Amino acid sequence: MRPVGSKYLLEEPLGRGATGTVWRARQRETAGAEAAVPGQPGETVAIKVLKEELASDADIVMRFLRERSVLLRLTHPNIVRVRDLVVEGELLALVMDLIDGPDLHRYLRENGPFTPVAAALLTAQIADALAVSHADGVVHRDLKPANVLLKQNGGEMHPMLTDFGIARLADSPGLTRTHEFVGTPAYVAPESAEGRPQTSAVDVYGAGILLYELVTGRPPFSGSSALEVLHQHLSAEPRRPSTVPDPLWTVIERCLSKDPDRRPSAENLARGLRVVADGIGVHASSAQIAAAENVGALLAPDPAPAAVPGSADPTQVLPQGAGSFDPNAATSLLPHTGGPNNAADPTAVLPNRGAADPTAVMPPVPPGPPAPEEPHPWQSQLRAARDRNEQTQVQYLDPNQDPLRRRPQRQVARPQQQPPQPQRRAQPPQPQPGYGYPQQGQPQPQQYAPQPRPQQPQPQRYAPPPPQQPQAPQREPRQPRQRSANPMRIPGLGCLKGCLFTIIILFVAGWLVWELSPLQEWIGTTKGYWAQLSDWFGTVTGWIGDLGSALGK
Ligand SMILES: Nc1ncnc2c1ncn2[C@@H]1O[C@H](COP(=O)(O)OP(=O)(O)OP(=O)(O)O)[C@@H](O)[C@H]1O
């Protein structure tokens, strides 16, 4: 079991998509105030761990953080609730409610098409969810059966729309800087394929495709390549199956209109579908049947559709050759350069000169790409989020501020240990402001920033400790020691040397006394010491007298 942040433990993978892997996970402890749902220890959740290539893209990480509030605030009975966002090192994860049930793509594959009534009622609930998110300015942009989870409520199935905001994340400049488009070919609205301005009407188009697929078992447009599918979205009309009642077909046709302004708003779509469901059921009254036949009048477009910022580029052209496409796979990932298509993967990425910034409601990205070496404006927020989620951090602490080092105050307080400091500080500053020795009272960002950028605070908590080597040349050269060349300081060595010296002196003195004094004779004759001394004195005196008389002659 792998921890995600300090609050969650991944238990087993539930499924894998283009943008990441969804895991069943368990809450270890209650999440903090930054989570929309704090949760209880032991609670089971679903966690979507975004792919490494997304998590390592700075733009996507920033977008993820910016969209935190959007993702966390979207609540509706038909929207899978996002409980928390985790940023941990290079890992980005969305913590969601765990939905017990299959996704709609799998359900369709295993059980075949829905009845028209069931399809209308199920799509009406999805339209409810879209209406709420569109009112909040959020466009899903990747509506497809795989993103609808079927929650089992007793015998009933309750559709829950998921992956809000994920298409917007994947469509970050980090992935689209080579002009790609993010989407799933079978569900892409014509204006998205063409790179025209996109609005919430793209979700209504996706709902129309989904509705068609629910009643027929397959999406309306298919082909041998993604490009072929996209061309059909642009120019082909959907073929009407004989099993689809007139009123339902009216709704599908309006949703699949090439002109986004002709598509109903999500709210009107939900209302229209319920009227249709009532009118085509076996117990429908004549009034309900008549209302269903007039459903077209209910399908008014949205007067103020939510826009997808940055999606307007009339110069958009379709890619030249986008690889093969498996129409039976509900999802597909197309390479950025339009190479071969891997039909097993979900969300498609196709060349597109528009769709650069899918952020719908959050503050726009500052215009123009930042200089590569400049810190991203959101970097401090990213750092803060990472700090909050990371379990353990080793952080550098200025020795002067380390309470463990400061504790033995006796040493710090000694006045005789401080004198070299004022001398060093009095020296003129070095011409390398970024790497100066950390001094108390100076702002931290300047101490550790590799480049002097006073306006933009640098993350400092995890900056490596400032190198100490540059300080060494500033020290005063030490005077060579005069007293000893021995670099080792042995306690008591001076005392030992004094003792040895005394012993040598005593030895020499004793030897002189032994040789020059009458000591030897005295010991040999066993005389008394003073008698021997007076004999010796008499001998010396006599010897001096003889010497004097000899000199006098
Ligand atoms: N909240 C959830 N609770 C339970 N299962 C989930 C949850 N979210 C996703 N899953 C399961 O995980 C699988 C993978 O989900 P994911 O959203 O990554 O796939 P996808 O929609 O096919 O791909 P993508 O959206 O990335 O293009 C889904 O098939 C679904 O069954």
TrEMBL record:
Keywords: ATP-binding, Kinase, Nucleotide-binding, Serine/threonine-protein kinase, Transferase. Residues 8-276 form the Protein kinase domain. Residues 433-450 have a biased composition (Low complexity). The keyword Transferase applies. GO terms for molecular function: protein serine/threonine kinase activity. Gene3D superfamilies: Transferase(Phosphotransferase) domain 1. Residues 361-372, 417-432, 451-470 have a biased composition (Pro residues). PROSITE patterns: PROTEIN_KINASE_DOM, PROTEIN_KINASE_ST. Its EC number is 2.7.11.1. Pfam families: Pkinase (PF00069). InterPro entries: Kinase-like_dom_sf, Prot_kinase_dom, Ser/Thr_kinase_AS. The keyword Signal does not apply. Residues 306-487 are annotated as: Disordered. It is an enzyme of class 2 (transferase). This is non-specific serine/threonine protein kinase.
